Amino acid sequence: MKVLVVGSGGREHALGKKLHSSTQVKELYFAPGNPGTFEIGKNIDVEANDINGLANFAEKFNIDLTVVGPEIPLVEGISDVFKKKQLNIFGPSSRAARIEGSKSWAYKLMEKYSIPTARSEVFDNYTEARNYLGSQPDGSLVVKADGLAAGKGVFVSDDPKVLQNGLKNLMENHSYGKAGDRVVLSDRLIGREISVFGFVSGSKVSSLIPACDYKRAFEGDEGPNTGGMGAYSAPKIWDSKLELQINTTIFEPVARALVEENCPYFGVLYAGLMITDNGPKVIEFNCRFGDPECQVLMPRMQSDISNVFMKVLSNDAPKLQIRWKSTNTIGVVLVSGGYPGNYETGTEISGLLDASNKVTIYHSGTDFSKTGSIVTSGGRVLTVVSESDDLMVAKAECYQAIKNISFSGMRYRRDIANGIEQH
Ligand code: AMP
Ligand code: GLY
């Protein structure tokens, strides 16, 4: 089978590595890929958002399956274009992807179908939003851009000034473009945050797999939100009782709701959840794998990934059965100094070979220099992943391996999987 993976991050490198290990996959392409994916397949010169370019490539090269990593092409309708051309694609339609593309749409869906989430109000008008924010106790609300903002259009703080400034930046200064024209002000949920993933095929939902993501830039969960600074799986609070509760109160109802709303979901559904004293509640849904969660989940997948994808698409199996290993994994993201603000690129990365003996290194913001060496090209540069029966062993190996790697300005959080009793 010929498979095309859309995207260029660590998530796509991890999906690609898993696909590469499948005996069914004979040829693997990445659009546009990165120096990591170059090792396991062919990188093609088509951008992840170039939907027509991707469809033309898939048609011309008889691609049997296209797997979409990032949210933007999904929200913009890549699956719809591929389906019209009768090309197999793993990822939901644009109508189903609204569950991530519009927080207000997702919130209304949850409200209509009684799916547990935070009470929220939606505003198109800055003055009304500001007045509502001012009328609630300090720190009790979360300010969110309605549209896609790469995980950065959300403000959570006890300091009312941070929330007021966030709101102003979204609605008045348009710092996040159109994503901030509409905002959602949600009650702040208190509890333990986990990312949970399920494969959804119409009204069918697979068993669920969890990870903990570290979104804040600095140790101790300080600083601005980022795309993700590290992750581990499985969270200590995860057990079959919690999985059943999340499946029956969140995943199964939302899959049925999407069928009911005439936009059935086919793909992987990612729920950002808060486990509160009153049970699990949805913070947000995403229409794809998380990054860096995918990097810690792929090593744990035991089932053949290409079979899983095809089963989701064909929707003919009575059940979606997916096997996962009972191992634990940790992933630490190495970022460019300054991320998530401005940072330098083009700096040489050394030590990758030495580090790769005991751990897996997934590339994100990397590129080849003119001389063929590997240099930085983005904010999140590499994810270093380690797997073991014992999470603490995995953690020690991961941080030990990172000592081999260096580039100018390199930074990472040293507290991934610390204090895991809190998760
Ligand atoms: P989102 O992009 O909606 O996932 O928001 C980014 C991060 O902000 C989440 O991972 C949470 O840590 C935090 N957050 C968002 N909404 C809420 C909420 N209603 N209550 C508490 N924290 C939240
Ligand atoms: N790690 C968070 C995300 O992928 O949205």
Short description:
Helices cover 29% and strands 26% of the residues.
Question: Can you tell me about this structure?
Answer:
The protein starts with a strand and ends in a 21-residue tail after the last helix. The strands form five sheets. Strands 10, 11, 12, 15, 16, 17, 18, 19 and 22 form a nine-stranded antiparallel sheet that branches. It has a five-stranded parallel sheet with strand order 3-2-1-4-5. The chain has a four-stranded antiparallel sheet with strand order 6-9-7-8, with helices on both faces. The protein has helices at 10-20, 51-60, 71-75, 78-84, 98-101, 103-112, 126-135, 160-171, 240-260, 293-297, 305-314, 352-355, 391-402; strands at residues 2-7, 27-32, 42-43, 65-68, 89-90, 120-123, 141-145, 154-155, 183-187, 192-201, 204-205, 209-213, 216-218, 222-225, 230-233, 266-276, 279-286, 328-335, 360-363, 366-368, 374-376, 380-388. It is α+β, with helices and mostly antiparallel strands and 423 residues long. Helix 7 (126-135) runs antiparallel to helix 8. It has four domains: 2-94, Rossmann fold (3-Layer(aba) Sandwich), CATH 3.40.50.20; 119-187, 2-Layer Sandwich (Dna Ligase, domain 1), CATH 3.30.1490; 192-319, 2-Layer Sandwich (D-amino Acid Aminotransferase, Chain A, domain 1), CATH 3.30.470.20; 329-422, Glycinamide Ribonucleotide Synthetase, Chain A, domain 4, CATH 3.90.600.10. A hairpin with an 8-residue loop joins strand 7 (141-145) and strand 8. The chain contains 13 helices and 22 strands. Glycine binds at residues 151, 213, 227-228, 286, 290-291, 293.
